[in-house]
# Entry
Amino acid sequence: SVCDDETGGSTTNEQATFNLFSKVEEITQGDQTILVNFYEDEALENQITDTENFVNTQANPQVVYVEAVDLDTDCTKTTTLTIEVIP
# Structure
């Protein structure tokens, strides 16, 4: 969760900027062979490319879909991350 900021021109619109990249270490537990991708949709089609400056696109809360790929084995796991703006 983060506090509502001036994103979108208002501090009451439930929009804020999130640093999704800051969650990578927690997801990989420091394993450098795991690549983490974030997506806006469950089908993993709309990849979030600016993971350090992601502005939520849905009302509170928003689910972000996470794909973790082991580069050594090509094994893929998916999970979710829920983000929320505190008004």
DSSP finds one helix and seven strands in the chain. The chain has a mean pLDDT of 92. The two ends are 10 Å apart (CA to CA). Residues 24-28 form the longest helix (5 residues).
